Amino acid sequence: MTSPYRNTFINPSTGCPAGYRRMSTTRHESFSEEMEKLDVQEGVNLMVETNGLSYGDYLQLDKVLSAQQCQSDAHGRPVHDEHLFIIIHQAYELWFKQIIFEIDSIRDMFLHDTVNEARMLEVNKRLQRVVMIIKLLVDQVLILETMTPLDFMDFRDYLSTASGFQSLQFRLLENKLGVRNEHRVRYNQSNYREVYKDNEDQLDQLVKSETEPSLCDLIQRWLARTPGLTSDNFNFTQKYQDAVNGSLKEALESVENEKNPEVKKVLLQSYKKKKDQYDSIFDVDKHNSLVARGERRFSFMALQGALMISLYREEPRFHQPHQILQSLMDIDSLITKWRYNHVILVQRMLGSAQIGTGGSSGYQYLRSTLSERYKVFLDLFNISTFLIPRDLIPPLTPEMKTALRTVDNGV
């Protein structure tokens, strides 16, 4: 019988990357029979023979695995669960570093005046990687929940003034995504920078992250250049407004024909509310007013671009952009879930009234961060408010159909 490995890319005689021979695994030969046929094991340990880099050296495990210094041990009163607490938070910081690394690379792609569409697949891949990492961080809270409040109390005093609020990387991540200062909850009535005022290097990093273009800023610039938005080709904004106004006109006629006064009153209120919502996306001044009040984040044209991509997402050129918008919402949602899990964990461990180790109000402060003010891509969540039925979506012109089926290397 032919070996199941024949005609595959994996030859049974080849070895692992370290240089050890792979054993034959045919159905007719047992492991012991194979060993009997071998006088010696073929292959060499390449690391030893070539004086190469070891696994531990490559990962610098001597530094990583010696970084868990339990304060309870240092004080001569070892507490078992402190080790878990340190490992969990160090793992968080390592993943924060990777997320920042990915977000910075994506920002670099969008920093140019034109964005190479050939890079959109790579952007999506890296965004999906960030999504998967944050999913892991959300679930990681469950491991901490294996520690009871009494277990935590055994070593909490050894934390001294150390607090998760002091995590520089998490603040950098927030800023790089697009959380703005005016949307932050004040920390003990002060700007969150106060925590870093005694560390000049960290403060400089923080200020830089506030002043350089965030991912949200760059995504808005990109969306504002969506093909077909302006009057020089398709003029989606005007065509969409015409379609909505036609639908609203029919709705108003239906309300006016209603005979029941009570039903008519309810329908009229609903119509006015819907009309006000649509007016806010047609009128630049009304839109900017909502932005000033913190109810919207995107520029007027960026919101129009996101809406157009959402309505015409089945067009080939919009496949990747639509997936990018979905991934950005996933990131926002997962960070909100992570904050929520953190809040519940703190309440479980400390209750609702105890002060945090860093001096904040603890649970009360963390709960306040769950509001929509921390949602960077809030407008993408609210796009569904402005979607219209498929049969009302303005048909594309032949020129626009061609444009949305042709990749442009600079948009």
Task: Give your account of this protein's structure.
It is a single chain. This protein is an all-alpha fold and 411 residues long. 57% of the residues lie in helices and 0% in strands. Helix 6 packs antiparallel against helix 7, helix 9 (168-177) packs parallel to helix 10 (200-211) and helix 13 packs across helix 14. The radius of gyration is 29 Å and the shape is globular. It starts with 30 loop residues before the first helix and ends in an 8-residue tail after the last helix.
Give the C-alpha Rg.
29 Å
Binned, the helix content reads 55-70%
General shape: globular
Beta strand %: under 5%
What is the structural class? mainly alpha
Number of strands: 0
Topology (SSEs and partners):
Elements: H1 31-37, H2 46-50, H3 55-59, H4 61-64, H5 71-74, H6 80-110, H7 120-144, H8 149-156, H9 168-177, H10 200-211, H11 215-224, H12 236-256, H13 261-282, H14 284-292, H15 300-311, H16 319-350, H17 363-368, H18 378-381, H19 398-403
Helix pairs in contact: 6-7, 6-9, 6-11, 7-16, 9-10, 11-15, 12-13, 13-14
